[in-house]
Amino acid sequence: MFKKTLSALAVACVMLVSAAAAGTIFPAECTDIDGVTRAGYLDEDGMTVLPFAYAQAGDFADCGLAAVENEQWQTAVIDRTGKLVIAYTDSPVSVDFSDTIVAYRYTDHSVYYATDGKRIGSYPGAVGFFEDGLLLCRNADTGLYSYVKQDGSTAFSGSYRKAGAFSNGRTLVQTQDGDYQAIDTEGTVLYTLPNDVTPSYMAIYGESTVVVTNGTNQALYSLSEGKLLTEFLYNTISEFHDGEAMVRQINRWGIMDTTGKLLTAPTYYYLSYMGEGLYAARSEDGSVSAVDAGGSLSYRTLSYISGFSELRYGLSWHNTADGTLIFFRKNGGFAASVKEAENPTILTENVVCVTQDDTRKYIDLRSGKTLFEQPKSFDLGGGITARTVHYEKFMGYQQDGTEHGWDVDFPEISGLSDKKVQSTINSEIRSFFLKGPSVTAEYDALEGSYGASVEGSVLVVWANCVSGKGAGSSVWNNCLAFDLYTGTQYTLNDLLTDDYIETVKQLLPDDHAIYLYSYPRISTKGVTYFYNEYESASRRAYTEEYLLTFEQLSGVLNCNSACYKALMTPYSPKVSAAATGYSDVSSTCWALQYINTVTERKLMTGANGKFRPNDKITAAEVCTTIARQRGLSGSGALPAGVRAGEWYSDAVSAVYANGLLEGLSDNFRPTAAMTREDAMQLFANLLQADGTAAMSDTETAQTLASVKGAGSISADRRNAVALCMQKGLVQGFSDGTIKPQGTFTRAEFAKLLTTI
């Protein structure tokens, strides 16, 4: 079996390259409890347009296409409906898009496709795209450049030391004799530059302008006039964007056109091109502004730490000293602010991705709502929950200015009845992740997440990280295994006999030496071995995994070992009724762990030693538990018909004041059993209060399509029911129904409380 570890992709690889494109569909990522990060596409309402089924997903380019990868390390190109335009094939280093062509870039060649998926051809040493019908290619053996046509034939005789892409039928080349010339698409020499100047860039701008250097400073030279357009007055002249270039003179920056005319005199301390005709400019007073080529102000701030790096979809950002991200638009308008956030990525003109509270979030700047975010906890079953803990260790800066260090997630387990065992397991997990792969890797970068599963009565936790940066980095996916009853830590030696190595060697592929198969992970099916390949210049770090089943290992399997027995024994904590404190909750009750949890957290309590697990829960009890869970307080206002002075009045007031009874306050009857659809309306209100976007009617219909008898759901409850189903709070019954007019028992509601 071959499987690619997604943390390796997300951290260690060159990301798929796509041109910026306006649109409302954007890629998003989510890491599941298996530790694998998957990508899909959302729209600006937070609805899933294309499912989270890709290993990686790139932005949609202007041509309406995007590059995606699967878990077999293959790349494809899709359209906005998810249709494959270019089928999956071996992954290139990158994928580039133009308006009409898709380029798969490999280390020594590029494969070009039309945007309808038709293969154009493969070209060794290709650079860029076809311009004026010709493609620039570099010969790997000689290092010389030449031009080819789409059919692969040579456009004209001649090979060059340096060469640029054609534009308007002309380009610059350097002959093998060292002369710099301008040629046309037939290879005819149009102009020859003087020997005392050298082009800074192999490009012709405007009518016939070239940026040249005398070895110290730079100037503009006109090919057609055969003379300098400016003197060598400038320390730096950048490449031109839309006919404008940045110039530096005596440590001050300005902007110039292709004729040498200064559009903005060199007055800025610093200048950089943001895109879409705007520049980031730092002034003498310390302020930073977004200005156009003429110096007209679009946006200005004195509160600046970093940012102004790009203008995308008409949107840019900067952050402030208090950790706030400020987003502003091209016209200078304020878009939004996001507090205590970092690592912004602009996805559309209205949606950004940021890291906030150590969580990746996709935020709608118009409403401030979180459209989607990485889950912080996972239900492992049996009342056991894995909550994500984030750990960072700063270790300095790399040569490119980016931070160097550790950025790791690991789980904290809750829900075990034996708190001493739970504490022991969590201590070992924390130590495992904070120590990292090895002593020798202590000072290498480490980034990634974790996976966890309950195998019988064994908790298995594994790292899913990349250790190191760039070439030489590798996947770290070592694991731990614990007995959930005793906290005993198991290794492979506790499961197999002492002579297992030879059997394992015979079962694993002989493609690699046996010692290269590492980090064996146990499960109820068998033992999985991993072969982790280092990243190289042409290949990112990846993982191959091989499951050896217990049938295959039967000759060396110790079936009498505590480890094997634990794997074969489903986890069912033996908690006595006395331990729960309730005489009506037995040790075999399906909701035992949920009842224990809500009792420990003082969210739900019983009376006279009984929890009443099978009683229908009332609206008053629902409001009371929600108010306790959220720490809510009210203003004293109550829904119509609810009397003050009752035991539940304060809780109902608190929930009502915080808007959580939206859609429920009419005919609110606190002492009546709350219907399932009404309870789901309240939980939907909770989700939306936490930033979850409401579902559209279309997505609601799609979600409820599989529900038998969905027509019995009240019209004003359909969206709420669908949202609760989408978030996994409610599953249908075995007969396919949702029973909207039914009720929740107190035991069922205890489970809901521990899930949300």
Observed structural traits:
single chain, alpha+beta, Lipocalin, seven-stranded mixed sheet, four-stranded antiparallel sheet, 12 helices, 15% helix, globular, disordered N terminus
Overall description:
The protein has 756 residues and is α+β, with helices and mostly antiparallel strands. Among the domains are: 16-124, Lipocalin, CATH 2.40.128; 377-567, no CATH class; 577-755, no CATH class. It is built from 12 helices and 48 strands. The strands form 12 sheets. Strands 39, 40, 41, 42, 43, 44 and 45 form a 7-stranded mixed sheet that branches. Helix 6 (592-600) crosses helix 12 (746-755). The longest helix is centred in the middle third of the chain and has 17 residues, at 419-435. The chain starts with 5 loop residues before the first helix and ends with a helix.
Offer a concise description of the structure.
The protein has 756 residues and is an alpha+beta fold.
Evaluate the radius of gyration: 32 Å
DSSP helical segment count? 12
Rough outline? globular
Query: What is the subunit organization of this protein?
Result: single chain
Largest pleated sheet: 7 strands, mixed
Q: Structural class, please?
A: alpha+beta
- Taking all residues together, what is the mean pLDDT? 89
Show unreliable segments.
1-23
| Beta content | 25-35%
